[in-house]
Design a protein that fits this description.
Elements lengths: L9 H35 L8 H6 L4 H5 L2 H13 L4 H12 L5 H16 L11 H12 L7 H13 L1 H6 L2 H7 L8 H22 L1
């Protein structure tokens, strides 16, 4: 016949209390981690509600349409970062910013900064330029003008257009925006969209693993 907790030795009661305390702490920690994880995932999910489907589809018409749209540029940069090749778009953006320089006194330091970061053979983010373009740009920087990086910028634009831009259009970074979950479609379109979504999910899962 059960005599209750009073019949148990004091050491057993203490062990039981210690175990209860540890379980409570672990459960509390687990809940906290789950919450932090879910919050982190929400923060990393790009918001695409303000970009119309018509606008997103225009990004597939040309690289120019893509990178001249703020959201398109952000998506393309994220894609290039995933491939560890973001130096190309960073150089292009730096050149665009440089051409907006209004003060002649600022041209030389800004030109030198771009040269040291992207064009010099010791650059931390060296872009892929042929020797002729590199040499010409190096000469231009000695007496910088607003157009001193134009040729190098065109070469990098063409490189992205023929290579990374095409891969971007086939990646989840673009496909998830042009065909968001729940979008209405016909039977054949839905079938293709479903297959593509499965492929995209597989890519995302493999990246997270």
């Amino acid at each position: 016949m059960c005599k209750g907790l009073a019949a148990l030795p004091a050491t057993c009661l203490k062990s039981a209390k210690d175990m209860k305390h540890r379980l409570g702490f672990l459960l509390q920690k687990s809940d906290s981690c789950d919450y932090s994880s879910s919050q982190s995932k929400k923060e990393k999910i790009p918001s695409s509600q303000r970009v119309s489907q018509e606008e997103v589809r225009k990004w597939a018409d040309s690289l120019e349409n893509l990178i001249h749209h703020d959201r398109g540029l952000a998506a393309f940069r994220a894609f290039l970062k995933s491939e560890y090749s973001e130096e190309n778009i960073e150089f292009w953006v730096s050149c665009e910013d440089y051409k907006k320089t209004k003060s002649p006194a600022k041209l030389s330091p800004k030109a030198r900064k771009i040269y040291d970061e992207f064009i010099s053979v010791q650059a931390t983010k060296e872009v892929n330029l042929d020797s002729c373009t590199r040499e010409k740009t190096s000469h231009n920087v000695l007496e910088p003008t607003l157009s001193c990086f134009d040729e190098a910028q065109r070469k990098i634009f063409t490189l992205m257009e023929k290579d990374s831009y095409r891969r971007f259009l086939k990646s989840p970074y673009y496909l998830d925006l042009v065909s968001p979950p729940g979008a209405s479609c016909g039977p054949e379109d839905c079938k293709r969209s479903h297959t593509r979504t499965l492929d995209c999910n597989s890519n995302v899962i493999s990246q997270c693993a």
